[in-house]
Amino acid sequence: MSKATVKKLHWRSKVQESFVPLGGASGELGVAIGGGADYGEFPFVTAAPGGGATVGDIILEIGSTPVLGLTLGDVRGVLNSCPHPIRIKTVLPGSTLCKDLRLYLSKCFTPGSMDSQLQQVIRENLYLRAVPYWHNKCF
Q1: Residue 132: is its pLDDT beyond 70?
Q2: Residue-wise DSSP of 32-54
Q3: Which residue among 9, 62, 74, 87 is least crowded, i.e. fewest CB within 10 A of its CB?
């Protein structure tokens, strides 16, 4: 008896789009986030009392802004500056796209593939916060 080959779906096919409502009379956002490039992680949902997202999901976009590679403060800034309700794209973490940003950036992907393009977006966002430093030992 031969085993049937099960084709794994790419993480991109599992992207979910939802809208984050304001939370009740307090006017707070219906989602809390953690992670961020400053922690070496993708931004992810830590609480979703408004039901607009799933806890643990990696946040790919807020509004139309890709947030992968941004610091947690920058992701919160994007989240707070969007008109309500906020459109958010998330994906459940898996083997290829897990919460560890460094691991994803260390992988080699085929040039031009979705993963390679995503790595480029992440690097561009990381460079927004990079401070150039030049050191000359001859001084």
Answers
A1: no
A2: EEE--GGGTB--EEEE-TTSSS-
A3: 9
